[in-house]
Amino acid sequence: MRGWLAGGLTGIGVLLAAPLDAATTSTFTVSAQIVAGCLVVGGVTNYGVLNYGTQSALSTGLLSTSLGGTTVTFQCTPGVALSMSLDGGQNSASGTRNLKNTSGTQVLAYQLYRDAAYTQSLGIGQSAAVSYTDATAIKLPVYGRVQLTGKLPAGTYTDVVQVTVTW
After folding, report:
1. In angstroms, what is the C-alpha Rg of the chain?
2. Maximum pairwise Cα distance, the chain
3. Do 76 and 133 touch, CB atoms closer than 8 A?
4. What is the rounded CA–CA span in Å between residue 68 and residue 49?
5. Where does the pLDDT of residue 34 fall: very low under 50, low under 70, confident under 90, or very high at 90 and above?
6. Distances from the Cα of 78 to the Cαs of 45, 91, 124, in angstroms?
7. pLDDT tens digits for 144-163?
8. For position 116, what pLDDT does the model report?
9. 71: exposed, middle or buried (C-beta count within 10 Å: 0-12, 13-18, 19+)?
């Protein structure tokens, strides 16, 4: 019996010592999907300010300004179609945006545009394309106009407009 056990163990040893046909090289796939998008640079709490300055309560005339102050810049993948829409603000009435006297109920109508020539109005909720030449420094093109009547009570007139940017 001892001979049989020794012979059996030798046979197992031969089986274990036999070379295995294992692959020594192989391949694997590497991939990445890059999607178009934009990055908001400079915070998202305030996209800027339209400031008509300080005027006399007796002033008449047309005032113009553009989005300024600390403005937000967007960086987008080149070729991304960027658009914006603006709501009516906090004081809109009958489809008109209004500045409201902070100490009363008096309002002053104003209009927003997407071009410096003031020919392309930004209607309430209307989507407008944002064109750009530098995909790393995109600023929102918003321009404002207000007609002073010379009959308004003195005070500070304000409004807050919500901007929605999509890509």
Report:
1. 34
2. 123
3. no
4. 5
5. confident
6. 25, 37, 28
7. 999 999 999 999 999 999 99
8. 94
9. middle
Alpha-carbon torsion angle 157, 110, 57, 61, nearest 10: 160
Domain 36-166 -> CATH class: mainly beta
Question: Quick one: tokens of 107?
Answer: 């309002």
**Residue 58: what residue type?**
L
How is residue 144 written in tokens?
A: 């404002």
- Count of CA atoms in the C-beta half-sphere (13 A) of 22: 4
What are the distances in angstroms from CA 91 to CA 46, 52, 110?
A: 18, 17, 11
CA distance 145 to 142: 10
Domain boundaries, the chain: 36-166
- Where do runs of H (alpha helix) occur along the chain? 2-17
pLDDT per position as a tens digit, 45-90: 678 899 999 999 999 999 999 998 777 889 999 889 999 999 999 9
Q: What is the pTM of this model?
A: 0.77
Distance CA 82, CA 78 (A): 11
